[in-house]
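Hi R.,

Here are the chain sequences for the assembly we discussed:
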Amino acid sequence: VDPRIETLQRKAAADAGVIGLGGGLPADAQFPRKALVAAFLEALSSAGLPALQYGWPEGLASLREKIARRLNGRGMNVGPDDVIITNGAQQAIALSLELVCRPGQRIGVDAETYPAALDLFRSRGLRPHAGPGAFEALYSTPALANPRGTSLDGAARAQLLARRLPILEDEAYAELRFDGALAPPLAATAPQRVFLIGTFSKTLCPGLRVGWLVPPPRYRRRALRLKHDSDLQSNSLAQAIVDHVLAHDDFDERLVRLRRFYRRRASRLAAALKRHLPSWRFRFPEGGFTIWAEADDVVDEARFLAHATRHGVSFDPGSMFRADARTTPTAVRLSFAAAPGPELEEAVRRLARAWSRRREVRSVTLPSPSPLAAM
Amino acid sequence: VDPRIETLQRKAAADAGVIGLGGGLPADAQFPRKALVAAFLEALSSAGLPALQYGWPEGLASLREKIARRLNGRGMNVGPDDVIITNGAQQAIALSLELVCRPGQRIGVDAETYPAALDLFRSRGLRPHAGPGAFEALYSTPALANPRGTSLDGAARAQLLARRLPILEDEAYAELRFDGALAPPLAATAPQRVFLIGTFSKTLCPGLRVGWLVPPPRYRRRALRLKHDSDLQSNSLAQAIVDHVLAHDDFDERLVRLRRFYRRRASRLAAALKRHLPSWRFRFPEGGFTIWAEADDVVDEARFLAHATRHGVSFDPGSMFRADARTTPTAVRLSFAAAPGPELEEAVRRLARAWSRRREVRSVTLPSPSPLAAM
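And here is the predicted structure of the full complex:
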């Protein structure tokens, strides 16, 4: 990510007057506060307080068992020891990458994809590339893509598998397909070379940083070793909390509610876009948190973000999602997940206003970089 | 770590009949349960529930500020933005290492040192080496060494600094020097090349995985980038909890209590060793959780651990702590921190019994490796 863009995003996030349509944040109103409090208190009443103590690198056995069971319900055939608890999906991607790619190699990605994966690939000296070509591995989100909210059909999935490459299969948003119609993971068909990656960040809350990795069996030992080297283990307390929530709440029912909630929000954003920005093109997403919209006019992307922020709205510019960081065609990812529903329409109104004055973008000056902008 | 040893340690940990003197676990009786519950409930009553939401890679600003203030009280001169919150000290070591070392290089370590650091160095293709030589970087625990519980005097510290190398300064146990007499970190003298590493794992609880890294300023941006690549950010909830505990409790008073508590336990273990294993050599530690003891007789280390486990006690064998993984001289690290006080004497009695029958060690058969033994 362009450090100028990160600086702008940090400024926007700190400004209560700006409605944020950037980021992959879930709606905080959907965090299961009560269930988490109950889980916490239960975790802290266990003798010996294991939720506060060290655990093993692979993570809490009962939580791994629950994850394995859920995956098996989708066509996988794994046991608890096949699952490694990670700090969200990001760490699962990072560990997998270290196992299959060397600096200088090429990794295949979608035309638009998850920015933190692209950042990671670049830091590791890999060349992410969209489109045809020779690759050493693929990063894919077949169940539900970020930012487009689309999923791969059977033919596209078969095509991916036919390439016979290691695949990092990121299912971060899979459970938030609006129709709940989840195909088996690619890992169910090719367990020997697919790294299955998931997280509770989008379905429970991201602050707990509980995700998982199911590496192919022959990589498991090395994956565990890498996890141990990286940070010994994931947060014991967070694991215990998620484990209790899964044990005592109906997680599938929760997913049904979440899908309905986010689909409603998506409709709201889509309607506002059609109304206020009719020249922008987008497809209604099949799930997830975001709409990817493209415009015909070319603007300086960072300056347009600064300009929009002054109009009281922020978003994620298109280049963040592209392997070659192209800024054209002009595109934005707009999240309908985090901003309160009634603000969505107002946000789009502001965006439309900023867009209508896009000739002013050239004269916008950018803020000096934040000392914390890392990208 | 030898996978046979890890397998034995896993078996021992799962066996309630075995008193564990292995590992760096704090006493669970010292976890500030009440303060943590209060902090959790407070964190979950903030509007917008930031403790459950995504945060920035560097971590919670108010927590970083408190850490900076504490470090400045010890001669540092840093602000909150110099501090990066990590998943315990281990991740801080891993991030620092990635910034200063390339595979194939040599990193200088103490004759005995922290096993997970050695494991990490080896995984990264580095050659940890104790003693004189040409190195690209040093890993050091000047304030308080693990496993020996010793600290470096002024001359040794000056000597370290005179080598003009990047230093990974691990202060994981620093605040648990029994006399509380903390020298300024090496980083205070050489902030341009010392990576200062600390954690709340030993002083609050390890399950929260909250540590910190203060990299030299010119590495800060890249350190942040690496942190983001690794797992986006550390656990928001755990950071909020620690932040609240630091704000509302007297952490220094807590440290005074902890030092007294662990010194008492150390005395108990030392007395038991003198009584039951008078032939073993050790020095009373200046702090921390462990006593390093050496014996004259040579035994097969892994088999002796298996043998001792059958006598109802486990420990960490000496090779784990040595850069060259030597098993001689026979040595063990014994923790006085985690086992309840009254069990310490019994544990040593069992160890002495196992030691007195060490001729039987040769005939001990080792268990088949755990599927999860990663080392």
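The longest strand of chain A covers residues 194-199. The mean pLDDT of chain A is 96.

Let me know if anything looks off.

Best,
T.
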